[in-house]
Amino acid sequence: MNIEDVVLNPASERPKQLLKAIFERQTELLHKYHPIEAKNGLLQTDAHPLDLHCRFSQARIKDMAYRAVEELVESVDAGDHIEHRQEELVDALHFIVELAICVDFTPRTLDEYYAAESDCNHVYGIIHHLGMMTHKCRNKPWKQTHQLTDIPRFYACLDQAFIAFFGLMKHEGLSPGGVYDLYFRKAAVNSFRQISKY
């Protein structure tokens, strides 16, 4: 099953709060994926929400941020293949949203993100903000002294990553409804993969 195989309801049936619906769907997906990661021995912690001061939670945050970065880089690698590039971008959105859910981040609305000032027209703007966010997680595996996370700055960087992400999606020519549709088409593919043990 691929994204092209998924047919959505008409645009008139979209919910009013698009990003809230995306967060709710991603919450369903993460509750299915986390047990798989735990079974594979790769779930650093099952804390929810993640404790931003805890080194295991910070390792989880960095892992999830890198998953988004990998998808962002794959979108660059897709070059002029617009559909493939946008699919990789929406894969990154899955991981950024999941990260936000796990750290108990309350996002703005999709319309607010689209209206926010952003000069982002490349994935590296998003990567920069994700990197600055993870930089606030100071408890590296080799550190022997515990450091507290600057939580307001952490959330501000994550918010900037969302602004940059949706700025790029707007640059890609995708409306908020277009992002919603693309997300839900890929979410349907991910659900199928879970069922088929992909």
Derived structural class: mainly alpha
Number of strands: 0
Determine the strand fraction and express it as a percent band.
Answer: under 5%
Q: How far do the termini sit from each other?
A: 11 Å
How many structural domains can be distinguished in the coordinates?
1
Low-confidence stretches: none
Description:
The structure is a single chain. The model has no long low-confidence stretch (mean pLDDT 92). By secondary structure, the chain is mainly α. It is 64% helix and 0% strand. The relative contact order is 0.18. The protein has helices at 18-39, 55-77, 82-102, 110-115, 123-135, 151-171, 176-195. The chain is built from 7 helices and no strands. Helix 2 (55-77) packs antiparallel against helix 3 (82-102). It has one domain (55-195). It is globular.
